[in-house]
Design goal:
Elements: H1 2-151, H2 156-166, H3 170-190, E1 203-205, E2 212-213, E3 221-222, E4 227-229, E5 236-240, E6 248-256, E7 263-268, E8 288-292, E9 295-298, E10 301-303, E11 316-322, E12 329-334, E13 337-338, E14 342-344, E15 350-356, E16 362-371, E17 385-387
Parallel strand pairs: 14-17
Antiparallel strand pairs: 1-16, 2-5, 3-4, 4-16, 5-15, 6-11, 6-16, 7-8, 7-15, 8-9, 9-10, 11-12, 12-13, 12-14
Helix pairs in contact: 1-2, 1-3
Region (Disordered): 1-175
Protein name: SPRY domain-containing protein
Biased composition (Low complexity): 144-175
């Protein structure tokens, strides 16, 4: 019985051992299976990670390639823009050089034509002086003939009548000679050869004494010899009552100056009231531009400049208005020397004016011409281009 029990125990022990071994084998298989799955999962993860890394690298490469393309496009655009800018700058430079050349050529042409005009004015002045001397000599001869005819006893009335018919009064003679001067000078200008591009001839207009207006209380006068004279000790303004609205006009007169109020200029044609006495430094109702002595006055405001030339006796003074150029401009020459200033933005309608300080002041009117040559602003310093305001 004991042996049987021991035998049963051994059998049970073997069975238990066998079951244990089976369990161990099963567990080992499960472990191996788990390890295998774990290894596969790890490899899969590594593959996924590698794939993600590759995708990221590809994205980076794509982005870098796109950025490079953009940069290349920008560089290409910038290069094209720079090329266009360079071409445009070259075109502008060429255009500027061409304009400078045209401006210089035009300026040289205007300067030469202006010099010709100034030479003609000087010749005209000399001819007028010679004509004045001839007129005076003829007048004296006429007086002598009149005296000699009155001393004769033969029919005096017919002789006197014939003398009057053959020799008109002195005032009419002077007026006739002034008109003759205008015709002669106009013919002389028309026969003067042009050195540059042909321009339209300067038109010289006849002037009559009744065109010079002054205040009713002023004692100034303008006789048939076109000499404007002062009459009292108050400053008198004399207006040449011809309204100028277009063109370039040059008014030439000769000065006989003995007072400090002697001058020349222009006035806004819309101002109908002639001031008397004329106070040049009064800004109230004063729409004039006057050059008195050696100072420029604009609407009562003085502009001091030591470079200005003073108007003195026996000088030829030309006041110029340019109603063609933009802006309209006023300038002045003394003895054919252009003064260093000009006045821009003058009114669209102007009249020439003269000022007298006392009875000894005189302006001898020489000529009024319409010119084709405007005022070149480039000849004046910007600081001396005064504005009419």
């Amino acid at each position: 019985q004991n042996e049987q029990l021991e035998g049963n125990e051994q059998v049970d022990s073997k069975e238990r051992q066998k079951e244990t071994n089976n369990e161990d084998q099963h567990n080992n298989k499960e472990i191996e299976k788990g390890n295998k799955h774990s290894k596969l999962g790890k490899e899969k993860d590594e593959l996924n990670e590698t794939k993600n890394d590759n995708e990221n690298e590809n994205e980076k490469d794509d982005k870098l390639r796109k950025d490079n393309q953009k940069e290349s496009g920008k560089e290409r655009d910038n290069k094209e823009d720079k090329q266009q800018i360079k071409e445009k700058d070259e075109q502008n430079e060429t255009q500027n050089e061409k304009e400078k050349g045209n401006t210089k050529e035009k300026r040289n042409t205007n300067e030469k034509l202006k010099e010709e005009e100034e030479e003609e004015e000087e010749e005209e002045e000399d001819q007028n002086e010679k004509q004045s001397i001839q007129d005076q000599s003829h007048t004296n001869q006429q007086v002598l003939q009149s005296h000699s005819s009155s001393d004769q006893k033969s029919p005096s009335l017919p002789s006197s009548h014939q003398s009057e018919q053959s020799h008109p009064p002195s005032s009419q003679k002077i007026q006739f000679n002034d008109d003759q001067d205008i015709i002669t000078n106009q013919q002389q200008y028309n026969t003067t050869p042009q050195k540059q591009v042909p321009q339209q001839p300067i038109q010289q207009l006849a002037i009559t004494p009744n065109e010079f207006k002054f205040h009713i209380k002023a004692t100034a006068s303008c006789k048939n010899d076109l000499v404007i004279k002062g009459g009292d000790l108050q400053t008198t303004m004399v207006v040449f009552d011809r309204e100028l609205t277009q063109g370039v006009w040059r008014f030439l007169a000769k000065a006989t100056k003995l007072s400090a109020s002697f001058g020349i200029g222009i006035i806004d044609a819309n101002q109908t009231k002639i001031l008397h006495p004329f106070r040049i430094n009064n800004r109230l109702n004063n729409n004039s531009i006057c050059y008195i002595g050696k100072m420029l006055w604009i609407k009562g405001s003085g502009k001091v400049d030591q470079a200005n030339k003073e108007i003195t006796s026996n000088q030829s003074v030309t006041a110029v208005v340019d109603l063609i150029s933009d802006p309209h401009t006023f300038s002045l020459t003394i003895n054919a020397q252009m003064q260093p200033f000009c006045v821009t933005h003058i009114p669209d309608k102007v009249k020439f004016v003269f000022t007298l300080g006392n009875a000894t002041d005189q302006w001898k009117i020489i000529s009024l011409k319409e010119s084709q040559i405007g005022i070149d602003l480039d000849r004046f310093d910007e600081k001396k281009r005064y504005k009419y305001e």
